[in-house]
């Protein structure tokens, strides 16, 4: 287990709550007085708004001597992460919705590798959303700063980077409080978004089905609703540049009214979306009930985003689902009917990928989709064996399983991308996850074995039977093939003598032909 997840939202949120209560107009600082020649590698105690003076900065608790050499650089560049601006024609360029971004992370625990993995993932997310990553930096701190996320002394350093690179957006690797976003925007003078907003944006770009779009919109509205004050303040500042004294966030009157109307509009929209989603859920529930009545076993493919879930579904069922080297390529679940080697029918579904700290709003909004995972008979938990931190991915996915009450469903770990993975890592994963199969959805390696394990784990029909079926009841024999299990089958003078297991309603029909 790594500590990659120690950078928890919980910690941030509880701090945030405390901070929100005492929030003052700390944002009206004049940025020009905050110039320090902080070289980004060492911390300086700096002059900051007097409002913050009695807030102990947790950064100060750390002494350089106590840290490993590797950890000494508190704010470091992730060298390999900038994407080159490719040689594209001006026309094409204008069509792209490119934002030029600087990524900023706070690294609170785990190894340097964990921190770099987290930043690499943020970069992939940013690129998936259509941004160009110019620079990625992170800072070592015990906890994110409640006011500015990174240490207050680092904000100026980031501003220099923003100016030098010409970035128009800063993306922070966490879920930030409205006040943190506002404070940062005030000092950095560019748009600041957090990881949650980024993921919501990707979902909004990718959702295709009506349900997927409604779910995403619901998640976005819930996110926005909590941040109305923050965004409102920021937007007016951004629009008008510098805000005249007294007319900023503190200027209650009209602003407050506007926020109230916005909140009401959002609430109305949320209620409408919830109603629509409920109707769509109704249709799906009917389908599911149908499947249940026929006791058709269902298998869900779940796992970290980009692990190869859709590729695996394609391999296992020839489904022809979109496969893409991109995060969150699949947002709309696909269910395929398929059969076991001996002809038994079952379904296999592809689902939306999970990610570390999947925004809570999304889990809530996608709950009805995710319920299908909780309701299935077997989960294929796909993990990318070639990823730098597959254990971290397994843990992150299991956190979501817990959140959607899916922990009771039997789980088969499918270690994918065996063709690209380090055999040592595969051995390590096998050791850790004894109930696992190793496959490559790309080459087909291990697929037959995986299918055999899957078939063996499907639930068995509940009723044992032995029946002598006259030859004109070939339809019943077919149905036993599709929905039951046959242990022996013999053609006799009077008909087909079959024994095996069937679900209740089929067993009821067979009862008329029962032999003991
Ligand atoms: N080398 C290798 N690449 C694979 C394998 N399986 C999938 N991939 C690649 O991994 C990338 C992601 O595959 P998908 O099947 O789209 O992954 P997914 O889990 O459905 O991803 P999302 O829907 O985005 O969450 C694609 O570029 C695939 O070609 C494999 O076994 N080996
Ligand atoms: Mg997919």
UniProtKB/TrEMBL annotation:
Monomer. Associates with the 50S ribosomal subunit. Pfam families: GTP-bdg_M, GTP-bdg_N, MMR_HSR1. This is GTPase HflX. HAMAP family: GTPase_HflX (MF_00900). The keyword Endoplasmic reticulum does not apply. Residues 297-462 form the Hflx-type G domain. Keywords: Coiled coil, Cytoplasm, GTP-binding, Magnesium, Metal-binding, Nucleotide-binding. GTPase that associates with the 50S ribosomal subunit and may have a role during protein synthesis or ribosome biogenesis. It comes from the Bacteria. Residues 263-290 form a coiled coil. Its main location: cytoplasm. Residues 1-60 are annotated as: Disordered. Belongs to the TRAFAC class OBG-HflX-like GTPase superfamily. HflX GTPase family. GO terms for cellular component: cytoplasm. PROSITE patterns: G_HFLX (PS51705). SUPFAM superfamilies: P-loop containing nucleoside triphosphate hydrolases (SSF52540).
């Amino acid at each position: 287990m790594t500590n990659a997840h120690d950078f928890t939202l919980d910690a941030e949120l509880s701090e945030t709550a405390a901070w929100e209560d005492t929030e003052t107009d700390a944002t009206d600082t004049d940025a020009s007085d905050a110039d320090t020649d902080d070289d980004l590698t060492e911390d300086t105690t700096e002059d900051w708004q007097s409002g913050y003076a009695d807030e102990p900065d947790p950064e100060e608790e750390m002494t350089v001597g106590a840290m490993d050499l590797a950890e000494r650089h508190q704010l470091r560049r992730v060298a390999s992460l900038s994407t080159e601006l490719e040689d594209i024609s001006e026309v094409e360029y204008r069509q792209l919705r490119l934002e030029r971004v600087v990524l900023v992370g706070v690294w609170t625990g785990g190894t340097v590798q964990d921190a770099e993995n987290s930043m690499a993932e943020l970069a992939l997310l940013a690129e998936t959303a259509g941004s160009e990553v110019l620079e990625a930096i992170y800072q070592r701190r015990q906890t994110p700063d409640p006011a500015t996320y990174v240490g207050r002394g680092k904000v100026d350093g980031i501003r220099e980077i923003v100016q030098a690179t010409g970035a128009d957006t800063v993306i922070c690797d966490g879920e930030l409080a409205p006040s943190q976003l506002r404070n940062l925007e005030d000092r950095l003078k560019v748009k600041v978004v957090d990881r949650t907003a980024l993921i919501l944006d990707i979902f909004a770009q990718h959702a295709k089905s009506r349900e997927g779009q409604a779910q995403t919109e619901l998640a976005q509205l819930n996110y926005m609703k909590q941040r109305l004050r923050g965004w409102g303040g920021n937007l007016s500042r951004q629009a008008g540049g510098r805000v005249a004294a007294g007319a900023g966030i503190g200027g209650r009157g009209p602003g407050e009214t506007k926020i109230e109307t916005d909140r009401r509009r959002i609430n109305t929209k949320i209620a409408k979306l919830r109603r629509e989603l409920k109707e769509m859920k109704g249709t799906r529930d009917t389908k599911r009930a149908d499947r249940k009545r026929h006791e058709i076993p269902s298998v869900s493919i779940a796992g970290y985003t980009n692990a190869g879930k859709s590729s695996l579904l394609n391999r296992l069922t020839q489904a022809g689902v979109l496969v893409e080297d991109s995060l969150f390529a699949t947002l709309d679940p696909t269910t395929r009917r398929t059969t076991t080697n001996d002809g038994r029918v079952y379904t296999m579904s592809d689902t939306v990928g999970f990610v570390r700290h999947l925004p809570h709003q999304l889990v809530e909004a996608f709950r009805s989709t995710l319920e299908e995972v909780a309701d299935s008979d077997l989960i294929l938990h796909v993990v990318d064996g070639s990823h730098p931190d597959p254990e971290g991915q397994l843990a992150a996915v299991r956190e979501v399983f817990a959140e959607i009450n899916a922990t009771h469903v039997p789980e088969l770990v499918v270690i994918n991308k065996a063709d690209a993975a380090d055999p040592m890592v595969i051995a390590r994963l096998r050791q850790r996850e004894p109930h696992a199969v190793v496959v490559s959805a790309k080459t087909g390696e291990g697929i037959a074995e995986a299918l055999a394990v899957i078939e063996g784990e499907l639930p068995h029909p509940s009723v044992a039977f032995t029946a002598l079926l006259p030859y004109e009841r070939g339809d019943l024999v077919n149905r036993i093939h599709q929905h039951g299990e046959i242990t022996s089958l013999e053609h006799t003078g009077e008909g087909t003598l079959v024994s095996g297991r069937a679900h209740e309603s089929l067993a009821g029909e067979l009862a008329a032909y029962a032999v003991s």
